[in-house]
């Protein structure tokens, strides 16, 4: 009986890492994670332009900025929804490493960098 229990434990232990294995992020996942803070910054800039005291904006310009803010907020919401669905399946280490690489001041274009796992 002990041998059967030990064998069952060893067999289940062999499959356990595969049950919790996470996918490497795709290029789309990496791009979404990279773009989200940028789009959030755009939203903040537009909202700041609308709320700056002492500088009234012409009605047409104010409406244009509101439209751009709404578009940017829509893009941010779309990216958040996408990432929320994907984040449970992704290897977060690869996302963090890619973010650190994007922050490195090496002069290369972020979209040209890929991480192979």
Automatic annotation (TrEMBL):
Organism of this sequence: Caballeronia arvi
Domain of life of the native organism: Bacteria
UniProt protein name: Uncharacterized protein
């Amino acid at each position: 009986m002990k041998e059967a229990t030990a064998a069952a434990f060893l067999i289940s232990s062999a499959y356990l890492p595969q049950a919790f294995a996470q996918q490497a992020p795709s290029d789309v996942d990496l791009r979404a994670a990279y773009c989200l803070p940028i789009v959030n910054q755009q939203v903040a800039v537009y909202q700041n332009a609308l709320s700056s005291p002492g500088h009234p904006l012409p009605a047409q310009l104010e409406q244009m900025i509101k439209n751009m803010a709404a578009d940017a907020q829509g893009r941010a919401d779309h990216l958040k929804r996408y990432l929320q669905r994907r984040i449970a399946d992704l290897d977060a280490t690869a996302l963090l490493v890619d973010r650190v690489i994007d922050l490195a001041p090496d002069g290369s274009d972020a979209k040209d960098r890929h991480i192979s796992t």
